[in-house]
Amino acid sequence: EDQVTQSPEALRLQEGESSSLNCSYTVSGLRGLFWYRQDPGKGPEFLFTLYSAGEEKEKERLKATLTKKESFLHITAPKPEDSATYLCAVRMRDTGGFKTIFGAGTRLFVKA
Amino acid sequence: DTGVSQDPRHKITKRGQNVTFRCDPISEHNRLYWYRQTLGQGPEFLTYFQNEAQLEKSRLLSDRFSAERPKGSFSTLEIQRTEQGDSAMYLCASSLESLRKDTQYFGPGTRLTVL
């Protein structure tokens, strides 16, 4: 069964304490892996798209990497404004086309 | 602003009433998606359109739910005879379908509360 699992469910960091969020997937025919940031009560905000194992993308304090089984979102020296839920989504081949499955997200809290 | 917009942002209704939500995608995007999200969960796919054609519907989409995209631009999602279990955030996203790029951009969502 196609599955996307994010860990940990919640992560509490001190400001400046770097860490990584994990997104593992068991799918066939990966079309793309997407990272989003979601603030409470708002829609997901696009961060990165990764298409191939070994690919990396960076934006400010965030860096996303992709292997054949998982993706990591590395957060370097986080600030309180990085506090949000980070969602991972995988687009894959499905009968007759493609489908997108989201993980449940990792809630990140960064304390000053 | 050229992002995805949704209206209304919040809707409170009584059980049994019908509600309709609207989504305006990014203008050049040919694909439009509807998702439902409950607290602590990621978005769950409901349906999507390529231009005006509804290409896929999730099993989550009961007969009480219907979506349209009449001219391939904006879309509406209607829920008939609402139930308390329909309370959720309804998200719309759009994308430009091409060989490589299939990134979905989301709107702010419509928060539905069914009393």
Give the DSSP E fraction of chain B (strand runs of 2 or more residues).
Answer: over 45%
Low-pLDDT ranges of chain B: none
* Most extensive contact: A-B, 26 and 25 residues
Order of helices and strands of chain B: EEEEEEEEEEE
Radius of gyration of chain B, taken over Cα atoms and rounded to an integer in Å: 14 Å
Q: Strand pairing plus helix content of chain A: what structural class?
A: mainly beta
**What is the 3D shape of chain A?**
globular
Total E-strand runs of chain B: 11
Report how far the terminal alpha carbons of chain B are from each other: 33 Å
Strand content of chain A: over 45%
Number of helices of chain A: 0
Mean pLDDT of chain A: 94
Could you say which structural class the secondary elements and strand pairing of chain B correspond to? mainly beta
Ranges of chain A where pLDDT stays below 50 over 5 or more residues in a row are: none
Can you lay out the helices and strands and say which pair or pack?
The complex is a heterodimer of chains A (112) and B (115).
Chain A: E1 3-7, E2 10-14, E3 19-26, E4 30-38, E5 45-50, E6 56-59, E7 62-66, E8 70-75, E9 84-94, E10 97-102, E11 106-111
Chain B: E1 5-7, E2 10-13, E3 19-24, E4 31-37, E5 44-50, E6 53-57, E7 65-68, E8 75-79, E9 88-95, E10 105-106, E11 110-114
Parallel strand pairs in B: 2-11
Antiparallel strand pairs in B: 1-3, 3-8, 4-5, 4-9, 5-6, 7-8, 9-10, 9-11
